[in-house]
Each structure stands twice: as structure tokens, then as C-alpha cells.
Write a structure and sequence with these properties.
alpha/beta; seven-stranded parallel beta sheet; 47% helix; globular; single chain; Rossmann fold
Length: 262
């Protein structure tokens, strides 16, 4: 935990917070004293996360799919109804499927990635900003990707496109709200072997004609550190951005990719 970071009295909402990067961030912010609301599609995993974190009364789970606008808006409103406000929003959920070259990419895969990555962040941020602006204080953190800084992987044009768009959205929100005490930044991780990567990675690898192990090794080889990143490395930066010391950083796309996009 960052020295001197105290989030007592702050309320955090993390989409996709029951596993992977989202769970790591939720845990760090919870340990810093914040009250936390996490969302996810799996009720059992959500309940398991709350039990494992051992912070009943300080963390709640709301079942929902971020690709559905009503579910996203319900998540934000439930956070506010449960804790009285929302101070920090982490747009963590996001992914893609239906991996194929652009010439064969389906409308369904394109639209699914758009909703999963970009629309969900827009819906959640729009709802959260209305409450943050009342107190002239807020933090929005978007979990982007190293793929939002480059385009050197086959069959993931939809993922690349909407992660690039998320970075633009981050800058726009930062510009509009900087004078209101609200910051907005994006963290761009390198490859992290989360549950989602374990689910979608093999299909992405297969579409590229390689094995999943080769897929992971390629990411590690591309990085200066020659390994995948960890959730702790991303959560530590998120915690700093939520602190008062991080108030001068906004509109930034911050790489935690082990030197992949040098």
C-alpha cells in the first residue's frame, strides 16, 4: 500500500471487480479504508470475493453485465443508494471475442467489443460524474490496454479499436472536469493472466495459429521485463491515482506494461 494513502470516507465502484485486475484494485482500495461496490456477471464469484476479502459491511456485490446499459446504471445507482455517494469509479470490465481478421470480423463481435469496452465506460462515467460534481471531487480510472497504444496483433482489431477509443474518452472526460476537482486517467496494462485471459486467450491464440503458451510467451518476450505483468502492479498505481498526491495527474494514459510499448 502506498504510504500515507487514506481513503476513509470515500466510496468506490469497480466494474468487473470480482476477479482479475478489478478484484486487485478493489482489494487495495478497501485496505486503504474505502467502501467498495463491485459488479460482475457471476453471483457466486461475487459472493466468494466478498467472503475472501473479509470486509462485510465495507464491500457489496451487484450482479450485472456491463454490456447492458440498464445493468450499468443500476450498478452506479445501487452504489450511491448503499453508501450515499460515489467518489471513485474504476471502469475495469472490458474484453472481446469472435477473433478474426477485419475482412471476416462479424458485426456481433464488433458490437460486443464496443459495448464491453467503450459503451460500458461511458454509461458508468456519465452516471457517476453527476454525483461527483456535487462535491467537486472525484476519480475516474479506466483500465485500457497496451493494445490501446499500438496495433501489432492479428485478429483483434475490435479490441484494439475500442481500447484506443477509451484513451480518447479518458482525455475528454479529464478536460471537461479538471476544474471541478475530478481527475480521469487510464491505466494501460501489458498482458496479465487474469480469469478473462484464461477464458479468451486460447481462442485468440488459435485464431493466430499459435498455442496459448506461445501466446503468453510472445507477450513476455515483447516486454522489457520479459514476463507478464501482475495485478498488484496495476492496483498500486490505481491507489496512487485515487490519493490526494495523485490529484495533479489527469488525462494521462499510464503504461504498466513492463516496457512493451517503449
Amino acid at each position: 500500500m502506498q504510504a500515507g494513502t487514506n481513503l476513509e470516507g470515500k466510496v468506490v465502484a469497480v466494474t468487473g471487480g470480482s476477479r482479475g485486475i478489478g478484484r486487485g484494485i478493489a482489494e487495495y482500495l478497501l485496505k486503504a479504508g474505502a467502501s467498495v461496490c463491485i459488479s460482475g456477471r457471476n453471483q457466486k464469484k461475487g459472493e466468494q470475493t466478498i467472503e475472501e476479502l473479509g470486509a462485510l459491511g465495507k464491500i457489496i456485490f451487484v450482479k450485472g453485465d456491463v454490456r447492458n446499459q440498464i445493468d450499468v446504471e443500476n450498478f452506479i445507482s445501487t452504489t450511491i443508494e448503499s453508501y450515499g455517494q460515489i467518489d471513485i469509479l474504476v471502469n475495469n470490465a472490458g474484453g472481446s471475442d469472435g477473433f478474426a481478421p477485419v475482412s471476416e470480423l462479424t458485426d456481433e463481435a464488433w458490437e460486443n467489443a464496443a459495448a464491453w469496452i467503450l459503451h460500458s465506460a461511458f454509461w458508468a462515467t456519465r452516471a457517476a460524474l453527476k454525483d461527483m460534481q456535487k462535491r467537486n471531487w472525484g476519480r475516474v480510472i479506466n483500465i485500457s490496454s497496451v493494445e490501446g497504444r499500438q496495433a501489432n496483433k492479428e485478429n483483434v482489431a475490435h479490441y484494439i479499436t475500442f481500447k484506443h477509443a477509451m484513451n480518447g474518452f479518458t482525455k475528454a472526460v479529464a478536460f471537461e472536469n479538471g476544474s471541478k476537482g475530478i481527475t480521469c486517467n487510464a491505466i494501460s496494462p501489458g498482458a496479465v493472466e487474469t480469469d478473462l485471459m484464461l477464458e479468451q486467450g486460447p481462442a485468440a491464440a488459435e485464431s493466430m495459429g499459435i498455442t496459448y503458451d506461445e501466446f503468453k510467451k510472445n507477450y513476455a518476450q515483447d516486454a522489457a521485463i520479459k514476463r507478464l505483468n501482475t495485478t498488484d502492479e496495476i492496483a498500486g498505481l490505481a491507489l496512487f491515482l485515487c490519493s490526494n498526491q495523485g490529484s495533479g495527474i489527469t488525462g494521462a494514459i499510464l503504461l504498466v506494461d513492463g516496457g512493451t510499448a517503449l
